[in-house]
Amino acid sequence: MTPTLVIVGAGPRGTGLLERIAANAPELYAGSELDVHLVDPYPPGGGRIWREAQSPLLWMNSEAQDVTMFTDETVAMAGPVRKGPTLHEWAALDGRAFTGRRRQGAYLRWVYESTVAALPPGIRVHHHARRALRVSGPPEGRQQVWLEGRPEPLLADLVVLTLGHLDAELDDEQRRLAAHARAHGLVHLPPDFTADTDLAALAPGEPVLVRGFGLAFVDLMVLLTEGRGGRYEGAEYVPSGREPVLHVGSRRGVPYHSKIGYDWTGDRPPLPRFFGPAEVDELLARPEGIDFRRDVWPLVEKELGFAHYHRLFTAHPERTTVAWADFEEKYAAGVGPELRALAASAVPDPADRLDLDALDRPLEGVSHTSYEELQDGLRAYIQDDLTRRHDPSFSPDSAVFFGLLSVYGQLVRLGDIGSWWHGFFSYLASGPPGPRLRQMLALSRAGVLKFLGADMTVSAGDGVFRAASATVPGTFVEARALVEARLPHPTVERTRDALLRGLYADGAAATPEGLLAVDPADGRVLDGSGTPHPRRFALGPHTDARGSGAFTRPRTGGPAFRQNDATARAALTFLHAHHHAEGAVR
């Protein structure tokens, strides 16, 4: 009987796993046959999120030169490097371009097709354009993968879940808001992948409350403005008259920071320095467990500060008052308040110092007397951010970006560290392209976009929704429509994915944040006792080994690549041994 591997999820993570199978098969599976069944209702390569059939107005959130599906020598993995083109090399684009998601989908389709072509002759791939509903079977025997609309299951020696982003059932607050909308004929759009959201109910000219100021909001903004016939003429927006009026707020009350708009020059900071493998080993060895803010954050903060000041002192020494060697020695010995005092004494301009608390809460303590005054303040904030992020004299910001990538590569080993860090990382390192923020300013001047401020709250009463914020105390905005502009946060209990929910019901372990618990070594699914399932693996954002984003930047070590390689090698080793054991029995 030919060994069988079922991969549930054919997006970038499933494609990346298949690429690692192709790379490792000559060493671990030479001359043997294998049937790989790829299960996903969406096309292989792009999957749901990056499918080619979506609006041409939606962009990639990374420069084309920063997107690759291929490994390089910076990835710490056991398997071989199999080089391939970045998105900009494949598409012959300007490396600094933010291309459309359709083109990214085409790149991913090409990666998938070239990977399948690179598989040894005995390894065959079969795509099933269906949803996987359930996995059953004993740990010591073949697994059954049940598909929607198919009476017989796929039989698998191993199953790997590469599910990507999932939908979620509404939480208690969302259910209350949805019930209020139904009772009063209002519009309530819960968290969703914006490209899949039906926006037709948002009427032209009507106020719409939007909670969420990240990347999902940017997509919403685009689809409700240019997507409805508006256009930009230089720095101004010309409405079509079909746009609603968007009132947007969030916890921070500001959009994510602009992508950095200049090239790096010189050497990168020597990272990791204060938060590397040794520090993670020490944290993992603590029998009492760890608390992120108490035990991990001080190390992260010191690492990011080191990246920042290394660049400032070495690239802009005229803005410092001591030699780098002296500063570094004192920095290495200092903690907490000592580091802030050291920076204050050696860096005269506060704008050159790194203050992560101020970055995280830029409107803390800011108060306006009216929403009109707030609009002017937020436009000035966004313009200042754009200016700074496109000025190489502030290149320590770019060094902090490299520090964030380094930190993320270490944090993956700690498993579920809570949701705060992931939001902070995205806010600093994964914001929109500069042109999107310039569009935001134009929409604000045109009156199509209005800012609500920080610590936004939403209430339902008297047949409407009301939004208030701490930035304009004592006032509120009413609307008959509310959009939750963010991706769902699907825990194993609230996910709409029947397969994942079923795994949890059958005994798979979950973390306190509701993520599927996996073995950090190779991605095997853990049960409640911490025992790895011998025949089930999982990779991606639904697990506690989730990475820093959808794609890996070239030459940054790529934790997702490392995970894919480890899972591929574990799967091939198991299948090869199992196949030969069966042959010996026969």
UniProtKB/TrEMBL annotation:
<feature type="domain" description="FAD-dependent urate hydroxylase HpyO/Asp monooxygenase CreE-like FAD/NAD(P)-binding">
    <location>
        <begin position="6"/>
        <end position="165"/>
    </location>
</feature>
<dbReference type="InterPro" id="IPR052189">
    <property type="entry name" value="L-asp_N-monooxygenase_NS-form"/>
</dbReference>
<dbReference type="InterPro" id="IPR036188">
    <property type="entry name" value="FAD/NAD-bd_sf"/>
</dbReference>
<dbReference type="InterPro" id="IPR038732">
    <property type="entry name" value="HpyO/CreE_NAD-binding"/>
</dbReference>
<feature type="region of interest" description="Disordered">
    <location>
        <begin position="531"/>
        <end position="559"/>
    </location>
</feature>
<protein>
    <recommendedName>
        <fullName>FAD-dependent urate hydroxylase HpyO/Asp monooxygenase CreE-like FAD/NAD(P)-binding domain-containing protein</fullName>
    </recommendedName>
</protein>
<dbReference type="Pfam" id="PF13454">
    <property type="entry name" value="NAD_binding_9"/>
</dbReference>
